[in-house]
Structure formats: structure tokens, C-alpha cells
Amino acid sequence: MAQEKFEFRSETKELLQMMAKSLYSSKDVFLRELISNASDALDRRRFESLTDASKLPADETLEIRVSADKVAKTLTIEDNGDGMTRDDMIANLGTIAHSGTKAFVEKLKEAENAEQATSLIGQFGVGFYSAFIVSDDVTVTSKRVGQDKAYTFHSTGDGAYTIDDAEKSSYGTKIVLKLRPEDLEDHLSDFTDEYVIKETIKKYSDFVQYPIMVECEHQHHRTGVEEAEGHDESTCNDPTHMVKERVWEQANSMKAIWLKNPSEVTDEEYNDFYKNLTYDWSEPLFRLNLKAEGTVEYRGLLFIPSRAPYDMNYRDAKYGLRLHAQHVLIMEKCAELLPDYLRFVKGVIDSSDLNLNISREILQKDRSISTIRKHIVKKVLDLLDNASENDPEKYAKFWEQYARYIKEGAASDYENKDKLLKLMRFVSTFTVDEDAKDENKGKESVKTSFAQYVSRMPSDQKDIYAITGESLEVIKNSPHLEAFKQKGYEVLYLTDPYDEILFSQITEFDGKKIVFIGRGEVELGSEEEKKANREKLDAQKKDFGGLLEKIQGALGGSVESVRLSSRLTSSPACLVGQDGDMSPQLHRLLSKMGNAGMPESKRILEINPNHPLLEKMQSRFAANADDAIIPKFAQLLYDQSLLSEGSPLPDPVEYTKLVTELMVESL
Ligand code: ADP
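^ Those are the sequences you sent over. The predicted structure of the assembly is below.
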């Protein structure tokens, strides 16, 4: 086939430009990316050869070769991996398969520094394009294993590329980059220099599991030449006696760090490995070494990143642990090793009990895999539990990033529900007070666990109380809290909308009911107190009966009913849900998420008979049941109840009018 010319998609063009710009100060990552692609190609060839030995002759060593040509100003990276066909080139190099190209470009624009930009490349799978950071002339020649024909892809990074027939004797891929002359002037970015090449490989690719051979120039003393008596070759510096020779030197150590005993490995080495594995530029928050010798033998090295990766919630984001069987990489991201909610855990698992030919389909049913997975979950949860007890500050950092995942786990992993509940932390009436006391506190507030909450419960408190709301600012002053504060009962502030969903499924901790105080009737205190309260309320109901009906009439269909409150001490009124109702915040959230038209359950307006406003309203009503001020006040009570819980007013203009009118009257 003759040469064919193709256009890159328009986003690709922008991507190439952005990448060159954002990564200008850490150009060397391009080498890591191309080596990583080569290593993946070698993995695939090795994997294919497991089922078809003809794909890899016994005497062929899988390796990566890097060489430079100072005169031609080129750098060549070659592998004997699986190679690409012509169609593969179009699909893999000519188009960006990942749906997140746009997202990638956006994120790249936001990146504050080159390190952040670098980590994006790996996360978005656009490694090949990093070649254009150092080159505007890239040639890829490749021959797919088992095929006769080879092809060449060539692009100058300006929006188009060509594909041509090529000659290549061996299988695999060879990438030649013409380096920019201006980069070569700076010694550190002179990638024709063997020292720079070797250092870059050590820095980024030391753990690659194939030899990375670099072509180097060696000098040695001529032998077999007649020399004067007593000539010492080791001290001779006569240049005419020296010969130069080109040799291949291995630049990476290939050490499998997860097989070593932790005592033999430094923190720095672990962190380097982590960074290589994840493309994260910051240190991990937690590290976990695993070694199991029971029913299934395996070793593992797991990490929890200090920040939750932001692509975690994309529907097609891939996650999982790197899986090795008998030290051979089987899968880059094995999701079967982790439950969904632990998808933020990174690392490597290497088991000697797994079959090398294990396929994805088999994985899901494999007993060893499910045993390992169970074990991983246990170890991770133990690690977190331990940290939450012994290193609360570090644990607080974890919770800040991963609260949602732990909650998701509590809702989905029945077996570990109690452990997960134990890991949860909340702000509460108590912690807010503690915060206020602490003068040198940072912006991060103290939080409580359920267990700590329970340990502070006064003896007459039976249930765990919680209030939901959009933000701490709004619910901190909610009228719903009044009676609880007065009794000295702690209330948890649940500001994550997910909490309400979660705790409608999980209704207890340690045998104590979790009660939402914005719903249902509230009865606090000992049996005698409750009885006394009930009697008082019954008496007041007789007095207020007519007024309640009047208010309900004035509010029309806005409320389910109007009743006297036993939860208010200083506010005149509040709105409460019925048991089992969804809160208005959750209703708003679900509506926003596309459940429009979902019926909102009507709530109950509770009024405080001991408030002077209600006392006065009652005496106006007693004097004249048709007093025109009463419906207006009813509307205001309702509107204020909405405002104080952070809900929007149905008609703010009407509200303002009414208030103004009353202000005028009172002057
Ligand atoms: P990613 O590696 O994250 O998929 P890249 O842009 O780095 O993204 O590479 C795109 C694809 O091109 C790879 O998935 C692979 O299919 C193919 N590819 C890249 N380099 C090689 C190589 N050296 N040998 C074989 N295939 C390769």
C-alpha cells in the first residue's frame, strides 16, 4: 500500500500543544512514558506466548533498547514486544481512544505545575503523545508478532500523520525521535548523552521488569600491541593506546520491591516505587506490606494515595491492583482484587498460587483471588482502624479524602459493616463546641466517631441523634436542635447528602438507634419527664386548638398539619418531616440529579406554645377569630421555618412585602 495521510482529530492537536507547554520543565517524562509503553508491549507478548509458544522463541530475550545518535540528533527506543499492525497504528497512535480527551486538556490547563501535569498523562492514557514534548518529528516502525508486514507511522506533530509500508526484520516497535536542537544545548535535556539517558531511566523506570539496555561508549586499553617493558595499562593515558567500543549496558535494576522484606527497603525506595506505579507526585498516605502463607500464598505492597484520584468517579475509570502470578505480570489493573469501595487502593499483588494462564473470566470465579481479596479488605480496614486509634491526625487526612468510599462500603459490604461504621467521623454539637474552645485550631475541625459519641451519652439518653442539612453553617443554628441542646444531648451534623441515604439503610450503631431529629415527634428525658411533658402539651392543645386550625387554613396545602412542638425552646416554629420521609435537602439533590417531578412529601409545621409570639397570637385569636393579622403571621412563621433550615422560599417577593408591611405597621 502506498503512503497514506491522515488528520489528527482537532482535540489531539490542542492536546499536543498543551502537553509541550505544560511539561516544558519536566521534559524527561517522555522517556518514562515510551519505556512504559514498551514494557506493556513486552508484557502482552509474554502473555500471548503463554498460550502460544511460537509467539516467543526460547532464545529470544524480551528487552528494551535505548540508543542515541549525536550526529543525527536522534533518540531511538526499541522493544521486541507485541508490535502493531497498520490498523493498530491508526487506532492507537492516530486517535485518542480515551473518552476523556477534552477533560484531559481542561485539567492540563488547570495544572499548577509540571508535576501535576505529568501525573495527568498517566491517568488519561496519552503517554505516546509525550514524545512531542521533545520532538517534532516522530517515526514509529512496528511489526506485529506473527505478521509478515511492517509499517511506519510518521508525524511532525502539526495535525497530520502518515502511514507507510516499511522494512523491519524483527517483531516489535522502534520509535525514533528527532530531538530539538535547542534542547540539546542544555546538558540536562541532551537526550543524546548516555549519562542523561541512564539517569532518567534510573529515576523513572528502575522497577520496569525487563532489562532496559542503553548503548554506551566504552574506552579500553589496546591489548596485544607491543609495548615498552614495564608499561602499565591501568595508568596509561596515551590516547593513541585507547580504543572506543560501543556496548549495551543495563540501566535499570528491575528489583521487585514487593518481594523484599520491609527491613531491606527504605521509605524513599517505597515512595519511588509508588510514584512510578501511580504517576502520583506526592507521597502516599499509607503503605501496607502483605505476606500471606495460609491457604493462598502471596505477597503484596499496597498504598493509599494522599489525595483521592479525581477520575475515581468517572463511569469508565479503571481501577484495580497490579497482579503478578509467579512474578510475571498478568494484569495491570485487576479490579477483582478489591471491592468497589476500596477502588482508591493502589499496589501490587504477586501470588505463587495463581495460574499464569488466568483470564479475566476465570478471575471472577477463582477461589484464590476471592481469598486474597478478602484478606486485602481485612488488612486495609485493620490498617485504617489502627490509624484511627493511634494516629488521629493522619486518619483525619484520610477521612477528609475518602469518607464517601467508606460510607459506600458500609452500605454495600454487609460483612464489614461494623468495622466501616467504626471508621466514620462526624462533626457534632460537641465537636463544634470543642473547636470553639481551641484557640490555635486549624481550619480542620475535630470530628467524633460513633463510639466516642456513645461514650458521652448521658445515662437517660437512649438513641443517637443526628440532623441533616446542606452545610454546617445552616444547621448549626437550626431550631430543631433546641430541646436537645437544652437536655445536653449531643447531635451529629450530617452535611453529606449521602448520609441520609446511608442511615436510612443502617439504622443502628452498637444496638442504639440512629434518629434524625428533623422528623417525627420528639420525646426526651426520663419516663416521668416525658409524662409531665405530655400532660402539659395536652393542656396547651386545648387552649391552642382553634389557632392551630386557623394557621393550617391560612397555609392551605403547604403543610400536612400544624401541631404543638416539644422540640422548640427559643424559636417560634419549625418544619418537621414524618417518620421515614426524605429531607428537603435530599429531595432537592435527587431532583437536581434528574429525578424531577418526584413528589415532595408535605411536612408538619410545629409551633412553640411557650414562645411570646404564639402567646400573643393566641390572645389576638381569642379576642377575634377573624383577625386579619393571623393569616399573615401564619405565612411568616412558615417562611421563617424554611429559612432557618436553609430551604429556599417558594415566593421571596411575597415574603418581603409582608415583612415590610408589618414593619410599617409597627412604627
Ligand atoms: P496508553 O499506553 O495509556 O494506552 P498511549 O498513548 O501511551 O496510551 O499508547 C496508546 C496505545 O498505543 C497503547 O495502548 C498501545 O496499544 C499502543 N502502543 C504504544 N506504544 C507501543 C509499543 N511500543 N508497542 C506496541 N504498542 C504500543
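The chain has four domains: 4-215, 257-405, 414-516, 527-666. Residues 37-38, 41, 79, 81-84, 92-93, 125-129, 173 surround adenosine-5'-diphosphate (CB under 6 Å).

Shout if you want it in another format.
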